[in-house]
Amino acid sequence: MTHPSAASRPVQAVVLAGGQGSRLRPYTDDRPKPMVEIPGTGTPIIGHQLVWLAEEGVTDVVVSCGHLAEVLQDWLNSADLPVKVTTVVETEPLGRGGGLKYAAAHLPHPDRPWYATNGDIWTRFSLRDMADFHTERDAVATLALARPRIPWGAVKTDGFGHITDFIEAPPSTFEINAGVYVFSSEFADLLPERGDHERTTFPHLARERRLAGFTIPQGAYWRAIDTAKDLTEAAKELAALGR
């Protein structure tokens, strides 16, 4: 394993903010998904992401825009941001992998590692710890892994089929891709010009044991804002956390 140092931690990041956000309508009728505000916070999702990235040592962010790009660009131009932001817009759909490659080409330090996050993720955990984990495993790419709560109540049974307990919204037994990444500098060259890296680049790296999974620490906040219900739930959770 490679011993990590502060110098190996990324200072640059890509935020993928080009999705249609169709499941969040009507909130996304006049704005892209990362511009949706969580009730009670007064700040769009991407605003919170940029603050988090800055707190974790990031100085430069490339925001990949798509749907209603001008709304996002106008907000970024007018807001008091804690990082330097560059926006890029795909002139034609490149797919998730192609879009990531296109955005990465605009990072200021192509020879250094970088973070990436989906534009609809609301989370708080130590990216520095994740970067150290990535370095220790000599990975080319590291995915943050979350264990989301199942949106239904679960039922426990015994060996005879008797119901013994009901559990409201338990954590999943499986970990999922949490939409936050650490990438080594060479990762961009492995991305497709068009298409989905999760079907090409990631499986290739997994076979070579160069793809790592960093489990978000227990108790750290994570939620993907995908539907109107997610907005409501996030508002409740953040109020309970006092944020």
From TrEMBL:
Pfam families named in the record: NTP_transferase (PF00483)
InterPro entries: Mannose-1P_guanyltransferase (IPR050486), NTP_transferase_dom (IPR005835), Nucleotide-diphossugar_trans (IPR029044)
Cross-referenced SUPFAM superfamilies: Nucleotide-diphospho-sugar transferases
Gene3D superfamilies the UniProt entry points to: Spore Coat Polysaccharide Biosynthesis Protein SpsA, Chain A
Domain annotation Nucleotidyl transferase: ranges: 13-239
Domain of life, source organism: Bacteria
Protein name: Nucleotidyltransferase family protein
The species this protein was found in: Streptomyces longisporus
